[in-house]
Amino acid sequence: MKRLSCVSTPSSVPHPANTSIPTGQGFINKHRMDLEMRLGLLQPILMCLHHQRVLKDQEREEVVSQPTKTKQIQTLLDMVVKKGARAQDHFYRALKEADPYLVEDLEEKTSCPEQAGV
């Protein structure tokens, strides 16, 4: 299993020059439904968010105690959104490292709206 670096470097998340929404916040807002349906392994993301002190032990336990994977993802996204833009940026970085192909696919759909219906 690949170990995530969980490095907190602001330069690792490019912020679009023409938007005021931070990358993580904008990403979750745009792709929440896709994330709920398509997000793969949660454990690496939870570990990274815990390491970055975005999630406490109790919060991590609350996520994994949910009865279904979809409910786990919804619970995690709810927590991250409630914590604000910095937490959402940490989530985005963890997701990008854990599942770069998912992030790339979702971002391509946003940048090429004509392909979104394909």
Please report the distance between the alpha carbons of the first and last residues. Answer: 33 Å
What is the CATH class name?
A: Mainly Alpha
The helix count comes to 6
H/E element string?
A: HHHHHH
Binned, the helix content reads 55-70%
Q: Give the low-confidence spans.
A: 10-20
The pLDDT mean sits at 85
Q: Tell me the count of domains.
A: 1
How would a textbook summarize the main sheet? none
Count the E strands. 0
The radius of gyration is 14 Å
Class based on secondary structure composition and strand pairing: mainly alpha
Strand percentage lies at: under 5%
Subcellular location: Cytoplasm, Cytosol
Keywords: Cytoplasm, Immunity, Inflammatory response, Innate immunity
Pfam families: CARD
Organism: Coregonus suidteri
Give a written overview of the molecule.
With 118 residues, the chain is an all-alpha fold. It has a single domain (23-110), classed as Orthogonal Bundle (Death Domain, Fas). It has helices at 23-38, 43-51, 57-64, 69-83, 85-98, 100-111. Helix 5 crosses helix 6 (100-111). The chain starts with 22 loop residues before the first helix and ends in a 7-residue tail after the last helix. The relative contact order is 0.19.
